[in-house]
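assembly run, all chains below
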Amino acid sequence: SQELEQSPQSLIVQEGKNLTINCTSSKTLYGLYWYKQKYGEGLIFLMMLQKGGEEKSHEKITAKLDEKKQQSSLHITASQPSHAGIYLCGADYTGANSKLTFGKGITLSVRP
Amino acid sequence: DTGVSQNPRHKITKRGQNVTFRCDPISEHNRLYWYRQTLGQGPEFLTYFQNEAQLEKSRLLSDRFSAERPKGSFSTLEIQRTEQGDSAMYLCASSRTGQTYNEQFFGPGTRLTVL
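ok done. output:
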């Protein structure tokens, strides 16, 4: 079974709309990382959350961590075509700041 | 500033052949990771190094796979007797210890196709 479940699997939104995607862990998280990937390319780091209730923002992207639910949400405000891509969450389950365990990713398309 | 680089970017090989990939991390990063990603999946951890020491290997890393980081700088990943199931994107990442959190910087990947 998948340790990190991401939902929805894919999403199509109209440019300018807000959206939220989720990442839920079946195990205790020491850290939760969000990355973005363009098809066929490497991953670009977005944000890292460590503490319950933590919330971080960068430009129009906000990520939150709910420690009780072991869940993180990523919210994009006023989506743009540049936001299109695959959003991956990665978990640090060891606390050793080493390997990451990734979810399957969410494919976001933004219609102009 | 150069990020993580990987070579080659694409490799097509016939089943049974050996292949080797190279990863050059960000220069001041002492940790280097290898992941494998197949279509529709997230990256799966293969192995990682701290300096020249290989600290962890995944069960995914069969005995046909070997990784090295001889001088604690670049790393190579070799796959012997390739199989069609080895077709994937091989991603390298690097990071630096002593940070509050482990931001891993990823390279563009090497896409392997085994015919």
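Chain A touches chain B at residues 4, 31, 33, 35, 40-45, 48, 50, 88, 90, 92, 97-105 (CB under 8 Å).

The mean pLDDT of chain A is 92.

not gonna interpret more than that til we talk
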